[in-house]
């Protein structure tokens, strides 16, 4: 069963991934090109998914939106993972006071709902793609820091770690060679699931007008633009809505199956 | 004198684990620290090996207080005092193959760089000494038997020729036959290498052929100490007599 779920997640993810990759080289129309004569054209040979209120090709915009969503999700979560894991390691291995300062800071950040925190940072940094990316990365830091901290604390008294210390290995080597192989599966699982969250936050920010700004394309922005015409032209909302669901569902399913698979691997090694 | 401690005490909250213990380990000497569970022998071993800080007292390595050591000497201490733990499989990294685990001691802080070829040559030589062949190198700890895993742990502790090896209940978790095998290997190693041994065990019979002296501990304190033959043949303290009787 797990195998089929994994295959399903790969198939789901291949849709936005292939659209996003192809968009680097080719889109049927430039995403900002307006064709006033063909507003709300509906599905046609010339526009496979129809056009929006400005006559812009929805398929082209959807392809670019997929690219932004996946890139922004992956890059921001990677940044959050690196910074969070570093803070988590420092907190877990430092003395009581340094550890406490880091942990209270992390707790403080975790106390804010994600979207509120991201909105706060976007307001500080200004809107746009890079601000959204940094805001989401900052939002991810405490999640990975907390996870890394607890995973390291869980292993700290394991005999193989005590053995590594007794051998006289340096702390960076112990972290890299001894902690990392054990905590990596959990971090990978969290990474995969967090990309889904990051894409949702980006969409929410763009929907609120704080993320990707027009005339660029993003799932949230397309949804927001389509919302005004939802009753007269309901097809406008479907492509970005469905693709957003497919992307996030694919990432979450992949996270779940990776978690099961990697945990099982861990069991066989114990 | 290679390793010693003076008036060492250690408490864990309200529990006194070690109380005012002093001992000396000479070069190439082998000492057994014997006592029942909770007698403080493992805590004492961890203090001597620098893994636990005592509440009071001092530990000396080659005459220098290990708590005051400057970086260079601290590295020297860390490299020269090695451990073999009770649970061999748990002391080996579950995700690393034996070959990788055995290369790790060569990466200790302050050690001169060694090429992988040199490491592997040393590893093969050491494996031969504990009667293992190179097929174990590509296995994970869970694929080894208890005896194989403990011999790998011994190789890991001794591969860089440390001056002191602390065996913390190193044969207790093994079945009788494997225990005998490992003890025979340790006896042979003792004859060939000038390393000092510190054996921590609750079973006095396992150290009788391995040690020059025995220290008997109870409730964190030393109750009797003396040459192995004297302790075994003519124990003075009632507790020692009980320990010997229980081992027979």
Automatic annotation (TrEMBL), chain A:
It is found in: Cell membrane. The chain crosses the membrane at residues 68-93, 105-123, 129-149, 187-213, 233-254. GO terms for cellular component: plasma membrane. Residues 66-255 form the ABC transmembrane type-1 domain. Pfam families: BPD_transp_1. InterPro entries: BP-dependent_transpt_permease, MetI-like, MetI-like_sf. It is a multi-pass membrane protein. One of its GO terms (biological process) is transmembrane transport. Keywords: Cell membrane, Membrane, Transmembrane, Transmembrane helix, Transport. Its main location: membrane. Belongs to the binding-protein-dependent transport system permease family. This is Glutathione transport system permease protein GsiD. It comes from Phocicoccus schoeneichii. The lineage of its organism: Bacteria, Bacillati, Bacillota, Bacilli, Bacillales.
TrEMBL record, chain B:
GO terms for biological process: peptide transport; transmembrane transport. The keyword Manganese does not apply. Residues 3-244 form the ABC transporter domain. Keywords: ATP-binding, Nucleotide-binding, Transport. Pfam families: ABC_tran, oligo_HPY. It comes from the Bacteria. The keyword Signal does not apply. SUPFAM superfamilies: P-loop containing nucleoside triphosphate hydrolases. Gene3D superfamilies: P-loop containing nucleotide triphosphate hydrolases. InterPro entries: AAA+_ATPase (IPR003593), ABC_transp_ATP-bind (IPR050319), ABC_transporter-like_ATP-bd (IPR003439), ABC_transporter-like_CS (IPR017871), Oligopep_ABC_C (IPR013563), P-loop_NTPase (IPR027417). One of its GO terms (molecular function) is ATP hydrolysis activity. Belongs to the ABC transporter superfamily. This is Oligopeptide transport ATP-binding protein OppF.
């Amino acid at each position: 069963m797990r195998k089929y779920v994994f295959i399903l997640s790969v198939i789901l993810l291949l849709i936005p991934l292939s659209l996003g990759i192809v968009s680097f080289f080719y889109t049927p129309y430039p995403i900002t090109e307006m064709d006033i004569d063909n507003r709300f054209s509906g599905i046609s040979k010339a526009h496979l998914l129809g056009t929006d209120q400005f006559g812009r090709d929805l398929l082209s915009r959807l392809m670019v939106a997929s690219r932004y969503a996946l890139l922004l999700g992956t890059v921001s979560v990677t940044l959050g993972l690196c910074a969070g894991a570093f803070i988590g390691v420092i907190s877990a291995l430092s003395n009581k006071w340094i550890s406490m300062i880091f942990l209270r800071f992390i707790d403080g950040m975790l106390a804010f709902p994600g979207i509120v925190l991201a909105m706060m940072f976007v307001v500080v940094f200004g809107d746009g793609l890079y601000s959204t990316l940094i805001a989401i990365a900052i939002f991810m830091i405490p999640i990975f820091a907390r996870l890394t901290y607890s995973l390291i604390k869980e292993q700290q008294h394991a005999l193989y770690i005590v053995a590594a210390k007794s051998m006289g290995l340096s702390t960076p080597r112990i972290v890299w060679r001894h902690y990392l192989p054990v905590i990596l599966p959990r971090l990978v699982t969290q990474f995969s699931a967090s990309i889904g969250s990051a894409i949702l936050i980006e969409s929410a920010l763009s929907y609120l007008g704080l993320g990707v700004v027009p005339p660029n394309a993003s799932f949230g922005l397309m949804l927001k633009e389509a919302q005004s015409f939802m009753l007269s032209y309901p097809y406008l909302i479907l492509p970005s809505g469905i693709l957003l669901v497919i992307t996030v569902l694919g990432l979450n399913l992949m996270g779940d199956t990776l978690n099961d698979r990697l945990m099982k691997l861990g069991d066989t090694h114990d | 004198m290679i390793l010693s401690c003076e008036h060492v005490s250690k408490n864990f909250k309200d529990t006194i684990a070690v109380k005012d213990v002093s001992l000396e380990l000479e070069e190439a000497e082998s000492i057994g620290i014997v006592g029942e569970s909770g007698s403080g022998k493992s805590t004492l071993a961890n203090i001597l090996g620098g893994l636990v800080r005592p509440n009071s007292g001092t530990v000396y390595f080659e005459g220098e207080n290990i708590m005051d050591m400057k970086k260079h000497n601290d590295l020297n201490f860390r490299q020269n005092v090695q451990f073999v733990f009770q649970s061999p499989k748990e002391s080996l990294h579950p995700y690393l193959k034996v070959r990788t685990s055995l290369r790790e001691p060569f990466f200790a802080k302050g050690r001169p760089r060694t090429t992988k070829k040199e490491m592997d040559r040393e590893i093969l030589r050491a494996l031969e000494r504990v009667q293992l062949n190179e097929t174990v190198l590509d296995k994970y700890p869970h694929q080894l038997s208890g005896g194989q895993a403990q011999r790998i742990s011994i190789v890991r502790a001794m591969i860089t020729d440390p001056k002191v090896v602390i065996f913390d209940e190193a044969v207790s978790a093994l079945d009788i036959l494997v225990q005998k095998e490992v003890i025979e290997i340790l006896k042979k190693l003792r004859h060939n290498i000038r390393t000092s041994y510190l054996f921590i065990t609750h079973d006095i019979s396992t150290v009788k052929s391995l040690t020059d002296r025995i220290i008997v501990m109870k409730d964190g304190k030393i109750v009797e100490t003396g040459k192995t033959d004297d302790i075994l043949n003519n124990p003075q303290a009632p507790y020692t007599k009980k320990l010997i009787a229980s081992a027979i």
